[in-house]
Amino acid sequence: MWLNLVVFATATLAYPWVVDGNVIPAWLLRHRTSDSSALDHVDLFYGTEGGGNVFPGATRPFGMAKVGVDVIDPSFGNSYSGYAPGGVVTGISMMHESGTGGAPQYGVVAQLPFTGDFNPHVQTNLSRAHSDSAKVGYYAVNTTNGVDVEFSAGERFGILKYNYHDGVDAKVLVNVSHHLTAPQRPWWTQYFVNGSIDATKSGYHGYTTIKGGWGDQKPWTLYFCANFSSAAQSVSSFQGTTVEQNRVSISSTEQDDSFGLVFDFGSRVSEVVSHVGISFISREQACSNINHEQDFNSLVSETQRVWNEEVFDKFEVVSPEPQVVDQFYTNLYGAHLIPSNRTGENPNPGWKPDQVYYDDFFTIWDTFRCLNPLHNIVSRKRGSEIVQALTNIYLNEGWTPDGRSANQNGRTQGGSNSDIVMADAFVKHIPDVDWEQAYAAMKQNAEVQPPYWYDSFAPDASTKQGRGALPDWLQYGYITRNYTRSVSRTMEYAYDDFALSQVAKGLGLSDDHAKYLRRSSQWQNIWNKDAQADGYDYKGFIQPRDADGSFNYEDYDPMSCGGCYWGNDEYEGKPVEYGFAVPHDIAKLIQLVGSSETFAKRIDDLYPLHGKKIADVGNEPSFLTPFLYNFVNEQWKSVELVRYIMQHDFHFGVKSLPGNSDGGAMQAWVIFSLIGIYPIAGTTTYLIASPFVNHLKLHLENGAVFEVSASGLSSDNIYVQSLKINGEKWNKNWVDHDTLFGPNGGSMEFVLGSSQVVWDTGSVPPSFGHIN
């Protein structure tokens, strides 16, 4: 019976639902909804292992407070999000990143409940009795140490609840210097600089100052404020191996000193609840960021309500496969963790509390391709705030970031890809942005080389912000090997300039439009028509080029990027992968490779489905490539390849992702793939594949609805036989943003089958940057 197979999660059902021609009765929808909410489909441990580094703790959408465990597990390596499945818990701290590489960030303002005597010679920790458990807004650790832990998070505070076993001495350790480290990458680790804590028996406040990390941040300070549900019987201090009884105030200026307080609640207390607030501004603001009247259960409920209202309730998903629904909502959750909304929390000079501010762009190089375009569909308000924040960072601090955390820019992996984030918002009419100011920020990136900032991994130019290799770009029209990452920078600078051209055009700046559109074609200057790769019968690849115009053959192989890191010609992608990284200029790329057939063959050769495993979807430069068959009207091959990648590179469970989540970029790729469309960032174009869900509705913020249906969908029936968009027959394998997500919303009605049908006989997707 098909009705028994339908699995979905939704909160609001205002429209009739049809699956394979059968109308699902409203009474069944209501019944099934009560059994299966979106929250039930979210796996917080998805992508936490295998290099995904997803944060599994408690937080809100884009929340500043990300409350989670900090774990030492030598077999796991660097705990980028604080979490590891084994090892011991050394603290429950208030701030974390999600899905990052480089090195761990934050893990600050920590408490740790324990029992028994405090031994300053031995690190206090908790051993788990079994695996941690979590659901949206809630996390729990059961230990073998006589105490169990639960915690939840608000926007800028958390509630931590400790349940002590009968008869044990209930204690809480507050280590002011606690922070995450990078034992496998000590050159990028964080260090404690100084701090202070003052307490009564009922609570405490203070600050901690940290420096270092992947962005090599200068010292930054976080203030904290906390209270306990019961007054402690006594408070002691510790510093290194020295303990002083009945001391409630202590400070330290020793780098990586271990110091703090121990609160002893005695053996009569079975539960201790602590409210902990944080702020970058002051202790007073940290205290005011706490809702002191809120209890633990109501905070969990409120946080879940916020997730439902802002994220999950916007979607209604139907699929006969439970795992597809799980995958959809779990990835939707992971796409809303960072950046962090810190409006009113920027301590840098000049900032005003009412200026919109987001931090933890870690990094835009990862997110601009599909995560930011996802926000511009699902939450235009957030998309607007992110662009406002980028603009405000420029206005107050001089440059938009590529990577940013702890209220400081750094590092830039390639181009100034905030330009593409801004352009994507601009062409999709994201409101409430001062576009003249935003465009000024973009022009700063395009015309002014940033001040030099030494980076031992790439000492040739600043990697803190802007375009470090800009002089070559302006002089030669490409980046020479005088700079690191010369090939990938050339490709990214071209795409970034295309982004400027689109905003300039919309603002009526015709000279700038022409200028930046011309510069967006400069990637062609590193195309060597004679370059070859061993084992392949076609010629022509992008390649390093010297200042005299000659192509540099030293150590060159289009199928290899060496270490693929800061000091190489290409960053996290091979030359053959970056050759496709010109989504604004695909028509010119097809002309350079010689024919549509060769273009398709080159994509074939990148993946094991038809060739070898050369492209790596675990790194973002190859995110768009599987969909590019659409440019030669072989859309069915895009469908096949996307299915292949989803089946072989993305999985379910803790080791679900093919690389770092990268702040939700991987999850956004999965979401678009499940829906059956993919954005070309900085344009209004979506390339069409085929959906993995039978039916999906997205309630847009403007009140309209975007709807997808897939008649005939099965494991064999994946190919598009026909398509209607907004009720009209459609023969193009691409669609414009306003057609689907404009004031009236939109619909896509797929008929799927098992045969490879060439239904896309209309015009190919537009190439904006091609210049004859």
Name of the level-1 CATH class of the domain at 68-203 and 228-269 and 291-306:
Mainly Beta
Mean pLDDT: 94
Q: DSSP helix count?
A: 18
The best one-word shape is globular
Biggest sheet strand order reads: 8-9-10-11-20-15-14-13-18
* Helix coverage percent: 10-25%
Please outline the major beta sheet.
Answer: 9 strands, antiparallel
What fold name goes in the CATH topology slot of the domain at 68-203 and 228-269 and 291-306?
Beta-galactosidase, Chain A, domain 5
CATH architecture annotation of the domain at 68-203 and 228-269 and 291-306: Distorted Sandwich
Alpha-beta content class: alpha+beta
Unreliable spans: 1-8, 10-35
Question: Cα-atom Rg, whole angstroms?
Answer: 27 Å
Residues in β-strands, percent: 15-25%
Distance between the termini: 58 Å
Number of strands: 35
Signal peptide: 1-21
Organism: Lodderomyces beijingensis
InterPro entries: 6-hairpin_glycosidase_sf, GH-type_carb-bd, GH92_a_mannosidase_put, GH92_N, Glyco_hydro_92, PNGase
Protein name: Glycoside hydrolase family 92 protein
Mind explaining what this structure looks like?
With 772 residues, this protein is of the alpha+beta class. Among the domains are: 68-203 and 228-269 and 291-306, Beta-galactosidase, Chain A, domain 5, CATH 2.70.98; 352-453, Glutathione S-transferase Yfyf (Class Pi), Chain A, domain 2 (Up-down Bundle). It contains 18 helices and 35 strands. A nine-stranded antiparallel sheet has the order 8-9-10-11-20-15-14-13-18. Strands 4, 5, 6, 7, 12, 16, 17 and 19 form an eight-stranded antiparallel sheet that branches. β24 (404-405) and β25 (408-409) form a beta hairpin. The chain starts with 6 loop residues before the first strand and ends in a 19-residue tail after the last strand. Mean pLDDT is 94; it is low at 1-8 and 10-35.
